[in-house]
User: What shape does this take?
Amino acid sequence: MSSRLSSPNIQLNELGKLHHFLTLEGLKAHHLTEILDTTESFINPNTNEIKKVPLLRGKSIMNLFFEPSTRTRTTFEIAEKRLSADVSSLDIQTSATKKGESLLDTLWNLQAMQADMFVIRHAQSGAAQFFAQHVAPHVHVLNAGDGQHAHPTQAMLDMFTIRKHMGDIFDLKIAIVGDVQHSRVVRSQIQALSILEAREIRVVGPKTLMPENPEALGVHIYHNMEEGITGVDVIIMVRLQNERMTSALIPSEKEFFKLYGLTEARLALAKPNAIVMHPGPINRGVEIESAVADGPQSVILEQVTYGIAVRMAVMSIIMSNAAQLTQYQTEKSVQETAQEEQA
Amino acid sequence: MTELNIQADTLIEAICTQLRQKDILKRSPKMIGIRTGGEWVAQKLHQKLELPDPLGVIDISFYRDDFSKIGLNPTIKPSDIPWGVDDQHIILVDDVLFTGRTIRAALNEIFDYGRPASVTLVTLLDRKGCRELPFQADIVGMTIECHKTIKVTGPDPLKVTLLEKQEETA
Assistant: This one.
């Protein structure tokens, strides 16, 4: 499994551009910057409004959610509709896979319904990659979260929110606080911040919620919350992933809040203009105090709005790349034919 | 290839004169420029005509009909129409009218914002003879034949350069 996950180049086409969007691992800064810049173009600078555009008219996008989701699924659907695509959302928990159909059979059946793009959320790490390996060449796969592996669009909307408020990520100190071990969001966030060369990435949490060798991620580890957030520009709180914990890793939620909960007093240790982010859903009183979550430094609800525009950007870039690849291949074959005729 | 520089200011002045002769200016019109060249022209016109409402700008990249052929314009920026389009008399400004496809896209975009009372089309240059869609400008700064290539650079100074291919000797 790990070797398959660490070969992300399947997501790039022969021109080195995004064909699928599975993980941020292996991507270059220009891939990420293109997404952030394109996102900007979907948002009205004065009203923050995101208008509907006819870009993906006639394209069919299927959302396959094998795992429950409210925010991600809804923002993907809204993004697809704002791009004028034809949208089908399948609640796979209640469909044929329950009747024993294999994942591949499900995939091939949906592909036969003329899908151009699949958006996949699955509890199994590597599920999106698996789909990408088996779809037809003209079909694209977007990872909307797979197990503990990756959630790249969430990380990109976080990067967009940071850039919007704080400017160039290059200059910033960012602290990610909470359940790092179980979070695909954190994995993707750390990858994105590394690719964009953030000045300092800190990870804050108890030893039991850290991955086995966190130093390998290129981050600074703090087990003390106060030390971890002192002087940072951005605080990203992540939820305790109770559903992914196989044993009791924290004494109690109350205890966790006492040690790692973001309170107004703790927030005062960060830079005065620091922003507070949370990918949601938030557990009030567990990892974050309501006064902070609803406070002036919180950008949590903006993250949700930007989530729509970021997903629109990723989908239109992928379809745009597909168009350019077809153009390139056509030109290449014309040239080759001409050369053959000359020979 | 020979280059011929055309005085953009003269063309802008000519457009203003034509606009002043029309009723449109009595109807408190609002102006929209099509990015990028049309925006430059619209800025000049907007200033000269002293229109009270801010200038709107649209980027028609999301509305192009060749997305599935050539993909997305990498320098796309958000459109910004800072007032309601409904029931307004709109002066739509572009730099060059050629096949008419840009105007089709621009009208589609404007109508996604609302239903204007009217749209008056202004173009700095009209490359006549190669239209692919039935669009004609109401006001034209200068007409040229469509096989001639032109380059509009700006915003300051706004310059129009006519590039003429030398007659090829057979």
